[in-house]
Design goal:
eleven-stranded antiparallel sheet, 589 residues, 18 strands, disordered C terminus, Rossmann fold, disordered N terminus, alpha+beta, Immunoglobulin-like, 14 helices
Amino acid sequence: MITHKHITVWIAIVGIALWGVGCGAGMADTGGGYNSNSTGWNNIGTSGAQDIGQFRSILEAGDIPAANTLDANGFFSEHHTQLPPPECGNDICLHGMLAVHNDWVYGSYQAALQVGMSSTIEASSLERKPLDLVVVVDTSGSMVGGNALNFVKQGLHILIDELEPDDRMALVRYNGFVEVMATFDEPSDATSLHMLVDDLYPDGSTNFHDGLEAGLQMAANVSNLERQSRVIMLSDGEPTTGITDNESIIGMAEGYIADGVGLTTIGVGTSFNVELMRGLAERGSGNFYYLESAMAIHEVFTEELNYFVTPVAFDLQIEVVNGAGYTLGSVVGTHLWETDGYRGTITIPAVFLASRVSHDDPPVGDGGRRGGGSAILVEMIPNDAWPELADPNRVAELRMSYRLPDSGLVVEQVVSVINPNAPGAELEQPYYSHQAIEKNYAMYNVFLGLRDAAQRAEHSHNEALWVLEQTEARASAWNLEMQDEDIEADLLLVDRFMENLRDRGAWAVNPGDPNDPNNDPCAAGIQEACYEDPCAYGGCEGDDVSYGFWGCSTAGAADSAPAGLALVLLLFVGLIRRRRFAAPARGNR
């Protein structure tokens, strides 16, 4: 049975699809989708979050995730974000790509600069140095909940079996106190390590600081140029004993990290300190993972040794200097960005090849992690004074330097980014400086929608639902043509988020029916939903927002698409949506 609600949703989605036809937001002339699976090069991953397992698990449990559980680096890493070929003549090549159009939620002008790195280096060509690994395990009493300690034990058994003959592993456990269970002075064989892991049990409070410091100190004491030193830190909660504030813990760790000790963090359960764990990993040239299932256990503990032990560059720095027609805005994809508004820098102690190049490479079966890289996107805000500029088309200049691992030679590269359109110029069609950014621009907008919804949900479920409805409609319209598996999986996240909000009483704003007495987004506090533009369904007195709900500039533009095309799009969207809800979540754990 087709209800009024179903018709409303279909009309809204078709309206968004026509936003890309009648309102001129079509494909740029780039030859269609970018074939990201036929390349012979690798992306360079930045350190930090590598998945959004915690965010996803909260949604799957029927709850509303906090905004800090959604990290751009982790979200982007779950997408295959292939970059242009590395043709700069060096091992690592810097890329600056620009996308310009309208954002997917509010329809306002949007210019996004992607900063990325690709490499000619093959993972199989990297010689892994022997590893000195310290594993620091939280065995506080809270680890008994949710099967957390059993997950950790399973993972550690896999990790021990993955070690190579010349590797060494030390083991530290901490609760209210710290106990060193295995040292490098008296190296244990695999059998002994397995027995020590079996003997771990939960008890007491969480002295996170002292446990981590003990592990870092052990790794630093044996550090030398012929071997790799790394610490893996596991925890399920907040520090409760000893030094507990994030700033002090990160400050302590940075001293050891500066001496060449790498640090990876793994969170278990849903209540660990995500900002602390992510911050430590990002500064420590490592990765932050979330351990929530048997599948994740195998992936995390094998992936860490296979990909994140051998760095391809040290002391990498990227500087972004904006053109006079733009100002640097918000940045997503890294927490290492520092800026004064006109110049931004990113400094990373060490970088590695991206570990996953697609959702099934290496094959991990249904429910495995997707992805294959990281992305850093910078909002470029137009400068109103651009007509007076000598070069208004220059968006930014990117400068990169890094040190080669073996020779220590410093390599530098400079890239200029140009926009052939004037700063702030409204475009009928999206502009992509390279077709590789087309999918990444969609990914970026889905992330912004999810983040905005999570932030709004803290005070209004209605506002959060409205944001997700806009995000879902635009993403569905985009994916009608592109049929991208990553965006399809993103849509499943959006759908589940909306379902959880509706279960809590949130109601959908219906811009297609101005006579609906429940349709008053202004009264709901959604000021961005109030428009004066004639293309929109209505306006709010005193609101100065001038961009219509459908992203149109005139009513005629919205009505310019033939009725037959609207019907075709309606039918296609309906079929796609039915197939999506019926199909298994191939990439979604």
